[in-house]
Amino acid sequence: xxxxxxxxxxxxxxxxxxxxxxxxxxxxxxxxxxxxxxxxxxxxxxxxxxxxxxxxxxxxxxxxxxxxxxxxxxxxxxxxxxxxxxxxxxxxxxxxxxxxxxxxxxxxxxxxxxxxxxxxxxxxxxxxxxxxxxxxxxxxxxxxxxxxxxxxxxxxxx
Amino acid sequence: xxxxxxxxxxxxxxxxxxxxxxxxxxxxxxxxxxxxxxxxxxxxxxxxxxxxxxxxxxxxxxxxxxxxxxxxxxxxxxxxxxxxxxxxxxxxxxxxxxxxxxxxxxxxxxxxxxxxxxxxxxxxxxxxxxxxxxxxxxxxxxxxxxxxxxxxxxxxxxxxxxxxxxxxxxxxxxxxxxx
Lengths: 158, 179
Known about the structure:
The complex is a heterodimer.
Chain A (H helix, E strand, L loop, with lengths): L13 H23 L8 H19 L1 H7 L2 H24 L17 H30 L14
Helix pairs in contact in A: 1-2, 2-3, 2-5, 4-5
Chain B lengths: L4 H19 L3 H21 L3 H24 L15 H16 L13 H4 L1 H14 L4 H9 L1 H21 L7
Helix pairs in contact in B: 1-2, 2-3, 6-7, 7-8
């Protein structure tokens, strides 16, 4: 666990890989449950998002951070983060466009009957997308370390 | 209100972990003590009947933060230490002691847990939420109702803060994570 063994940080283990392969779908399901069911039980977007993000970290521990980074399309992560903000803002501002006030879910009752309940769940899902993708981004950022940036043009300004 | 055995045990556990996180010389051991501290605090939230906060503390404090700390440690040098604990500075002990004493002095002024006459339950806004949240929002968790409906503008701000902080950290460190 020292700096000179940086490439050897990852230790391949059949036990960990098998366990993660079995557990990961359940953790992801639990994350979505916490997000969706946050309207009726403890939980919500922030907590569910962190749990969803931890699935990627589990995979990285089992299969190596480098290969997980290659496997996770980083454009999807970026799209999730931006999409979450857009979802929340669209729902909030959309009700103003429909003649209500900010985030007045009842303006959407012409689309779906229980607009308030489903609107809240959509907002929680948006928050979850933001939190999960930021957590994944920070994880890969810290995992990359800062030593490999050799073509840094303004190193002295840090 | 006298604390139960479980509460006393939890508080002792959390205090021991906090002192361990502050005092242990080895950074890895310190991170572990900090994770245990977060887990203890999350269980205390559960005992205090705040499961939403407890879930957040367990997921963020004990989960993600520990992983990020460990990753940071893995990318830095961790010197071997002979001593188990940091040397204690008298000035720090006095400073922290005075701070803790001031904070502790305010504890008896707090209303008891679940006290119906506590100022927060008597407030007009709280009563409005308690009476109308379930009917008006159609959800069965009042915390979610307040977060995502009544105080939705605040929550949008919080979500954007997470988003902007993530983007800013990645931009400052010039990583191509968010391509």
